[in-house]
Design goal:
Pfam family, one: Spo0M
Protein name: Sporulation protein SpoOM
InterPro entries: Spore_0_M
Number of domains: 2
Largest sheet: 6 strands, mixed
Shape: elongated
CATH topology of the largest domain: Immunoglobulin-like
Organism: Domibacillus iocasae
Oligomer: single chain
Low-confidence stretches: 1-13, 213-224
Distance between the termini: 75 Å
Length: about 250
């Protein structure tokens, strides 16, 4: 019977199970995630090489002229050294990991989850998936509020494939002007947070001018109507965010 149970466990039947119980489901980028990882033994004793916990998200990329969705690891940590979980035994392991400041915000199409897994040799690795809500950092929220205050409305948020960044993606916030000085002048404004910390944020603004006249239509057709500009904003400059955004956008509108 023991051999039979081992054979079943090797294909995932009667195998050990893992369940992550988070302290809460709503976080701000930069917060500490706390909780308990519960491992329950199956029908037979099994050697667990490690418990891993990862914060995951998805992003879009283009391949062969079509869009595909990929998964990306935001942060991944190993919780323990190898151990044996006996049949019917329950063990608990404390979880504490810090969400990077660049963790995507769960707006629009963006989803973020905590993935937990057990590495068990010669068996199907048990796993668990817990979706969480992630809010912008204080500095990021100030930038987004500054854009809104200039008459822009958030239209779409999504993670897109990117190179030469810390992650294989960046999160883009796409705004359209609906009131104020930029209504009728811009088609859209894209805001991307390239790097963040508790003390500063690096922002990429893509200013997309509305076509006006033949020259404007030609520029739009050639893709030269878009201007990319970087801004570095420090915590002590938060009170000046709106004016700094306005000054920058106005130069290229």
């Amino acid at each position: 019977m023991a051999l039979f149970n081992k054979a079943l466990a090797s294909i995932g039947i009667g195998n050990a199970k893992v369940d992550t119980k988070l302290e809460k489901a709503k976080y701000t980028a930069g917060d500490v995630i706390r909780g308990i990882v519960e491992v329950k033994g199956g029908n037979v004793a099994q050697d667990v090489d490690s418990i891993y916990v990862a914060v995951m998200t998805t992003y879009e990329r283009e391949t062969d002229d079509r869009k595909v969705t990929d998964e990306a690891v935001v942060i991944k940590e190993k919780l323990n050294e190898p151990f044996t979980i006996n049949a019917g035994e329950t063990r608990e392991f404390p979880l504490e990991m810090t969400l990077p400041h660049e963790t995507p915000v769960t707006k629009g199409k963006t989803r973020v989850w905590v993935a937990t897994g057990l590495d068990i040799k010669q068996a199907v690795d048990p796993s668990d998936k817990d979706f969480i809500e992630v809010q912008p950092t204080v500095m990021a929220e100030e930038v987004l509020d500054g854009v809104r205050s200039l008459g822009f409305r958030l239209r779409e948020v999504e993670c897109q494939h990117a190179r030469l960044t810390s992650y294989p993606f960046v999160q883009e916030f796409e705004f359209v002007p609906v009131t104020g000085a930029y209504a009728g002048k811009l088609d859209e404004l894209e805001v991307t947070f390239l790097q963040q910390s508790k003390d500063e944020v690096n922002v990429l603004l893509q200013v997309d001018k509305r076509a006006r006249g033949l020259g404007g239509f030609l520029s739009e057709a050639m893709g030269t109507d878009e201007t990319n500009v970087r801004l570095r904003i420090k915590r002590q400059e938060l009170s000046q965010v709106r004016s700094k955004l306005d000054e920058t956008i106005r130069r290229f509108a």
